[in-house]
Amino acid sequence: MRGPRIATLSGVTTINAYSATRPTLLVIDDDPDIRMLLCDLFRREGFQVDVATDGAAAISFLEHHEPPAAILLDLLMPGILGTSVLEYLCSKPRLEHVPVAIVSSSPQLAPDGYPLFRKPLKFGPLLEFVRHACDPQSPPSVLS
């Protein structure tokens, strides 16, 4: 297995980029610990994971790559906020239908209409969201 590939000057890391058959998840978060945990979790579950360190890097990445199967988005980041990334996604026809979940320690700032996962994260429900977002035909499982 090859290690992560870091895209130069873009603030995006691609993990498992060498498999075209895996669903792709884009994690947008400025916290390196959260990024590492989410990458590890979803990589072990068989997803290709791309990681943007802030909103500007995420927008740049989305401009130049195929849409991901799902996006996990922090709201409070330096520079471009998560809410601005949401506005960008809604303004692009090829991105407006990508499932997005908010991952934030400031749930009061989350806009309506998006699944919200409060930090510190409970990984079971987050994993269930991503699985269902990447395969809408799969029935949701009951988490204990």
Q: Nutshell version of this structure?
A:
This protein is of the alpha/beta class.
Write the layout of secondary structure elements.
Blueprint: E1 5-7, E2 12-15, E3 24-28, H1 32-44, E4 48-52, H2 55-64, E5 70-73, H3 82-91, E6 100-104, E7 116-118, H4 123-134
Parallel strand pairs: 3-4, 3-5, 5-6, 6-7
Antiparallel strand pairs: 1-2, 2-4
Helix pairs in contact: 2-3
Descriptive labels:
4 helices, 7-stranded mixed beta sheet, alpha/beta, 144 residues, single chain, disordered N terminus
Fold and architecture overview:
The structure is a single chain. It contains 4 helices and 7 strands; from the N terminus they run βββαβαβαββα. With 144 residues, the protein is of the alpha/beta class. The chain has a single domain, classed as Response regulator (Rossmann fold, 3-Layer(aba) Sandwich). It has a 7-stranded mixed β-sheet with strand order 1-2-4-3-5-6-7, sandwiched between helices. The radius of gyration is 14 Å and the shape is globular. The N and C termini lie far apart (33 Å).
Low-confidence stretches: 1-10, 15-19
Q: How many discrete structural domains?
A: 1
CA(first)-CA(last) distance: 33 Å
Structure summary, number of beta strands: 7
Text of the CATH class: Alpha Beta
Largest sheet: 7 strands, mixed
Question: What fraction of residues sit in β-strands?
Answer: 15-25%
Order of helices and strands: EEEHEHEHEEH
Task: Find the CATH superfamily.
Answer: Response regulator
Return the CATH topology: Rossmann fold
Would you tell me the overall average pLDDT? 85
CATH architecture: 3-Layer(aba) Sandwich
Annotation field: number of helices: 4
Structural category is alpha/beta
Shape assignment: globular
Helix content range: 25-40%
